[in-house]
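User: Predict the structure for this protein chain, please.
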Amino acid sequence: MDESSRLGPEGAGASIFHDSMTWERACLFAAYVGYMQRVLAKCIHYAQSRRQYQRPIGHNQSVSNRLVDYKLRLEAGRLLLYRAGWLYDQGEPYEEAVAQSKLWISESAVQGGLDAIQLFGGGGVLREAGVDRLLLDSLPARIFSGTSEIQREVLARHMGLRSHSPLAG
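Assistant: Here is the predicted structure, written as structure tokens:
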């Protein structure tokens, strides 16, 4: 191979791959923050327009509390993602912050899909309503670019609970 084609010094492939995967996690999950925002808007619209006993279901505390909790998960994910990007821009260590944001956002997106199905009730499980897609579209977030379990391992390592090498027990 021509040396001018290398991304770094010989033997540094694993390190370069690790760094690029860490950055990829941050970039990809910005899209999930937008996705969560769209799901929340759809749920709020439904809670305002669906009526039960002559009033919008959003007036019910159980419905409004579910949507408030969703909003809190969304904004916490956004802030975790912004923090990871800020650390990267500052040249500071960012792997832990990216793992936190990836884990939080992916788990929150799935919970948001479950919340949407619950909110829409019986219609939420009907394919024709399209609400099932909200959950199905969120599930891959827990898997690609490092599973939620891998993110927990990264965080455990940063907390001093695991060694750096996955083979070092």
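The longest helix spans residues 13-49.
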